[in-house]
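Async update (no meeting this week)

Hi team, since we skipped the sync, here's where things stand on the single-chain job. The sequence we agreed to prioritize is pasted below, unchanged from the tracker. I ran it this morning and attached the output directly underneath so nobody has to dig for it. Comments welcome in thread, and please keep replies under the output.
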Amino acid sequence: MMTSAQPFDDFRNLFAHMPEGDVAQAGKVWSLFAKADKPQGSLGRIEDIAAWLARWSGRAPPSVLKPMVAIFAGNHGVAVHGVSPRAMEATAQRVELCAAGGAAINQICVAGDLGLKVFDLALHLPTADITVEPALDERACAATMAFGMEAIAGGTDLFCIGDLGVANTTVAAALSAALFGGRGADWVGPGSGADAAMQARKAAVVDRALALHGDRLRDPFEALRRVGGREFAAIAGAILAARMEKIPVLLDGFATTAAAAVLFACDPRALDHCMFSHVSTEPGHARLLAKLGARPLLGLGIDHGEAVGAGLAAGLVKTAAQISSGMAAAVR
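Output:
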């Protein structure tokens, strides 16, 4: 429940109270690998993943017992400018496909024994057109962040976050430009299949939004509400809630990373509990990951959305946990 005079104040205050991970548990994992019968560092980033998981789960060797994928779906008023080859109704259709078990992420969850939650964020009510007015008012944005924080209810020890939303790569480009500078052409890409003419429209739309909102975008939360959207706000809230509970997080593609970047812009330490699952084919995603100093785990040429990259990376994290656990038993 919001208690401060301004809706975002409660979230701003959380940054002063973010818990740190358990460095001692991470150290135990590094010590385990050092004692194991293998060349030093021979498992590469698998060792990094296991130590990161131990740091944020508080267990060494770490384990993953209740992994969960959360997908946040939203619609955007900016879609009226023809920035996506898909009609806005496609967002709801994708949500329904997930609910019916027929989406790619469903199969990944079955193969990897991952739980799945899909959140429909008022798909019948698109956000406002960001070239005309803010996407959300402050109270609605804060309320959506609070809703996202509830996604960890029921418990999880590996939280994989993804998104769905027609036109959300345009919104991700606008949000990235607001946070890190540049013009629309620096951040837009083909999204779900935009041709050159459509990409030019996307860039123009981003530039119009940046010009309209101007200096007010310097505040990351203002950028989120003005040129973001519901799934972006919910994802930011979910990441922040996971940090407060010291739950390790895997982040998916461009839109999810842009939402995470809002928290990074507030405090670079805010994403210490996160790993970036993959780099998509969307050019803005690679650029944004570089701005965050992030090293994605996978590079499979995926640009599918719906947490597919995060779900696949969860299998890698689970394997890293098993390797450290099995090798710990051998060392003993």
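Quick observations from my side:
The CA atoms of residues 87 and 166 lie 7 Å apart.
The chain has 14 helices and five strands.
Reply here if anything looks off.
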